[in-house]
Amino acid sequence: MAQCILSWIDVAKLPPMTPEPAPTIKQLLAFYLEAGVDCALADEAVNRLSDPAAVAAPAASEPALPQPVRPQPAVMPAPRGEVAAAPEAAIASARDAARTAPSLEALRALLETFDGCALKHTATRLVFSDGNPQARIMFVGEAPGRDEDIEGLPFVGRSGKLLDRMIATIGLDRSKAYIANVIPWRPPGNRTPTPQETQICLPFIQRQIELVNPDVLVTLGNPSTQTLLQTREGIMRTRGKWLNYDTGTRTIRAIATFHPAYLLRSPSYKRMTWLDLRAIAKALEQTTP
Ligand code: URA
Asked: Helices 88-100 and 104-113 meet at what angle, rounded to 10?
C-alpha cells in the first residue's frame, strides 16, 4: 500500500519544503533570535530530522551529547490565573524586604541579593530601571528580553525603540520619564513569567512605584496592566481608561496602553495608542505642579 502511494506521488513534483527564495543564514538567525533562541545547546549541530533512532539512542560507546540545561521556574506553574500555595514564603519574604527599602538605590541593592525568584539565576543581570527617578510619568512593562538582559536596562531592544518614539510624541524622552518592568529578570527564552514569579516580584515593583511616586502611571500591555491595576479584563477593554493606583500612601492616576512589542506585530493599533498618549499628555498638563 505504502509503495502504491509512493509510486502515485511524483516526489519531484511536490512543492519544496523550503520557502522560495530560501532564507539566508542571517535571516534564519534573525528569526531564531526573535523567537528567543539565542544560545547554542551543543558544539555540534544535530540533524534531528535525519534518523530519529540515532538521535534518540546514541551507541553506548559514543559520548552522550551534552544535554541542554533547562532552567526550571522556582515552582511548577499553576493553571493560568491561579497562584500556587508553594511560593508563599518567597512572596512573604519579598513583601518584607521591599517594604523596608527606604530609597530606589536600597531597593535595587535588595533585589541584587534577593534569592526568592529563580529567574535571577537564569538571567544575565538585574534589569532594574531606566530614566529619571524624579519624572512625573512612569511606564511599566512585563519583563526584560534578550537585549535588556545584556544591557541591564529596560526597553532597549526593538520594542524599546518604539517606546522611545511613543514617548517622544508627547514631548518626552528618557530624561523626563521613568521606565521599569514588573519582573526585573529575563525569563529564559522570553517565556511568559509564571503567576508565582509575578507574585514574588510584585512587592518590588509596587515599592518602586511608591518611591518614584509619579503623577501618571502607564502600564504597557496585558500582563503589567492585569498585575498592577488588578483587573482580569483584557487590554482591548482596559486601555485608554483612567484608573486609580493606590500606593498605600497616595493615589496615582493610572492608564493602560498597548505594549510596543504588540504594536510591532499589529501596527494598526498604533492609532488607538496615539489616542492614549494624547490623554496622557493632557493629564500631565492638568496636573502641572
Ligand atoms: N518588553 C518588556 O516588557 N520589557 C522590556 O524591558 C523589554 C521588552
From this structure: 150
Distance of CA 174 to the CA centre of its chain: 19
Q: Decide whether any atom of ligand 1 lies within 6 Å of the 145 Cβ.
A: yes
Residue 287: pLDDT band with limits 50, 70, 90: confident
| pLDDT tens digit sequence for 13-58 | 444 455 667 777 777 667 655 555 555 545 566 665 665 554 444 4
Sign of CA dihedral 246, 249, 251, 256: negative
187 CB within 6 A, ligand 1: no
Looking at per-residue pLDDT, the higher value among 274 and 41 belongs to 274
Instruction: Assess whether the C-beta atom of 197 lies below 6 angstroms from ligand 1.
Output: no
Query: The domain at 87-286 falls in which architecture?
Result: 3-Layer(aba) Sandwich (3.40)
Q: How far apart are CA 91 and CA 246, in angstroms?
A: 20
State the DSSP string of 177-218.
-EEEESS-SPPGGGPPPPHHHHHHHHHHHHHHHHHH--SEEE
Whether 142 is in the pocket of ligand 1, judged by its Cβ within 6 Å, is yes
Strand order of the β-sheet with 243-246 is 130-131, 178-181, 137-141, 216-220, 251-257, 243-246
Ligand 1 pocket, residue 155 CB under 6 Å: yes
How many angstroms separate the alpha carbon of residue 148 from the centre of ligand 1? Answer: 7
Kindly give the number of the ligand 1 atom that is closest to the alpha carbon of 127: 6
Say how many Å lie between the CA of residue 136 and the centre of ligand 1. 20
The tens digit of pLDDT for each residue in 129-179 reads: 999 999 999 999 999 999 999 999 999 999 999 999 999 999 999 999 999
